Amino acid sequence: MAEGQQRSQPDSSEDIPPATQNFIIPKKEIHTVPDMGKWKRSQAYADYIGFILTLNEGVKGKKLSFEYRVSEAIEKLVALLNTLDRWIDETPPVDQPSRFGNKAYRTWYAKLDEEAENLVATVVPTHLAAAVPEVAVYLKESVGNSTRIDYGTGHEAAFAAFLCCLCKIGVLRVDDQIAIVFKVFNRYLEVMRKLQKTYRMEPAGSQGVWGLDDFQFLPFIWGSSQLIDHPCLEPRHFVDEKAVNECHKDYMFLECVLFITEMKTGPFAEHSNQLWNISAVPSWSKVNQGLIRMYKAECLEKFPVIQHFKFGSLLPIHPVTSC
Predict the structure, then answer these.
(1) Which one of 157, 216, 243, 291 has the minimum C-beta count within 10 Å?
(2) Mind listing the pLDDT tens digit for each residue in 89-135?
(3) CA 179 to chain centre
(4) Residue 307 DSSP one-character state
């Protein structure tokens, strides 16, 4: 545990005052399938997966009710997400013939598109104001697509990238790790679930019953890490309705399962076959390792997902620089 936190100490790039950095508006760099090689060799990929794994280690064996430090930056991020939540209430669904993809979402998104930089400026100190336009792009990318009115793991990855960028410019720090997952990302999930339900958003690139989940992936990774070495709950228990109802407020994984069962009807083994199969894995440690491998293979190495990822100065496309 201590080793995991030691590894997450700020790297040498954070020794350079961020104010001297040339921030740029992130743009797409992965245009064809062969471009995927550039992504996997990039500094962005190394930083992104390192960020995910550091947080995975940070929440290991901890309940959501675990006491952790909440910094001013974390509080400001929660306030930002609360604003997005309030805008949903202010933008009710419209009457339309089609059941899915309510067009009121586009009105909601247009407000975010207009206000994103102002929202990010409430989190970023004034001496880092030059970073705001770059970081705000990832926030706008994290809530779904306004043309298709859909949401998926690529949008979720954009929010993780948004948080990673805030770490790289020093707004979020090493001792914010647990709060990043438990307070900020958990609040993000709540807002995204509300968006999905309110506007009946389509799953982006869903694999149907063969996918882990229609919309999310990261809370299953971090949620399984929370459950490692749990004295009572084993992977087989998450398909037990009683166990989920009793413990979902403590564990992200179980909260995800509860949301699925609320949204889908029929036998769990039929509508969520991949998760059903995971319930047969003997330990949470093995579940966690398997989910990380699956995330790389099914999300980070899939062209339909990564073609939308954007690269700037904080998450650059250039190859990893060797020490």
Answers:
(1) 243
(2) 999 999 999 889 999 999 999 999 999 999 999 999 999 999 999 99
(3) 14
(4) T
pTM summary value: 0.92
What CATH number has the domain bearing residue 62? 1.20.120.1150
Compute the radius of gyration of the chain from its Cα atoms: 19
Mind listing the pLDDT tens digit for each residue in 247-305? Answer: 999 999 999 999 999 888 888 888 888 999 999 999 999 999 999 999 999 999 999 99
- Within 10 Å of residue 183's Cβ, how many Cβ atoms? 20
Q: Which two tokens stand for residue 303?
A: 């062209």
For residue 103, CA distances in Å to 62, 106, 142 come to 40, 6, 18
pLDDT by residue (tens digit) across 42-56?
Answer: 999 999 999 999 999
CA-closest candidate to residue 172, choices 76, 252, 65: 76
Asked if residues 142 and 162 have their Cβ atoms less than 8 Å apart, the reply is yes
Number of alpha carbons in the 13 Å side-chain half-sphere of residue 86: 6
Which phi and psi angles does 240 have, rounded to 5°?
Answer: -95, 115
- The reply to whether 223 falls in a domain is yes
Whether 4 is in a domain gets the answer no
Q: How many C-beta atoms surround the C-beta of residue 299 within 10 A?
A: 20
Check the CA dihedral 202-206-211-212 and report its sign: negative
Structural domain includes residue 319: no
pLDDT for 2: 38
